Amino acid sequence: MGASSDVPALRRGLAVLRLLAGKAGPVAAAAVARELGLPRSTVYHLLAELVDAGFVTHLPEDRRYALGLGAFELGSAYLRHDPLERLARPVLSRLIERTGHTAHLGVLHGREALYLLREQPPHPHTVVTDVGVRLPAHLPASGRAMLAHLPPAQVRALFPTRDAFVDRTGRGPVHLPALRGLLTAERRRGWAVEDGYVTPGFASVAAVVLDHTEHPVAAISTTFRHHCESECGQLWPELAEPTLAAAAELTTRISGRRS
């Protein structure tokens, strides 16, 4: 990598890896060239170099290419380093300084929201969502912030019947049409809201964190004390604004893009 001319080649090689990573199966070199808008000769050269380095596997019988063991090893190393939590911790710390309320980082795990990180103000209220806790994703604001950015077919697959809709407090969506309505409104608004769906007397707002393909990889939420006899329809934009800013910052930190 001594010459500046190596940089475009590196970028093209990374583009090939990203394209292969986004496909459900192996891809022909001609398809790679067509989708990336590159000459076939260039693509064959890039693929040969990536094969030699172990990042791509050539399937000669199929005349196609797929990700290799080197790509898997990089992904495994990424996960071992807990990068999402490390990148999110200072973001959440700044968020609680702005709001004075507990902040969480959550990810989707099937149809559950899994909490990876929690940052609290000096005198926090006790909440159920500790690190490692899993909750039905349709109930917490963080879960729905992520669900709202999934394809409708994937949401339907996660919640195929009424039995998939766990009820904790008597609030929240209890079937797919109700969930779809919430997700449509929340995606349009830009943030999700939860009022006593998880724990009576607590509410939260959440915003999604996206990767470079605009796929939801996490959500940041702000949780606070709130009590009303029946769901009162508040949206808390004054708390949503700093939560959205935190999610946008984390999206940038992981080289993603906000939708």
From TrEMBL:
Statement: the UniProt record of this protein carries the keyword Transcription regulation: yes
SUPFAM superfamilies reported in the protein's UniProt record: GAF domain-like, Winged helix' DNA-binding domain
Keyword Transcription: yes
A single MF term (Gene Ontology): DNA binding
Pfam families cross-referenced by the UniProt entry: HTH_IclR (PF09339), IclR_C (PF01614)
Residues annotated as domain HTH iclR-type: 7-69
InterPro entries, A to Z: GAF-like_dom_sf (IPR029016), HTH_MetabolicPath_Reg (IPR050707), Tscrpt_reg_IclR_C (IPR014757), Tscrpt_reg_IclR_N (IPR005471), WH-like_DNA-bd_sf (IPR036388), WH_DNA-bd_sf (IPR036390)
Keywords from the UniProt entry: DNA-binding, Glycerol metabolism, Transcription, Transcription regulation
Residues annotated as domain IclR-ED: 70-256
GO biological process: glycerol metabolic process; negative regulation of DNA-templated transcription
Protein function: May be an activator protein for the gylABX operon.
Protein name: Glycerol operon regulatory protein
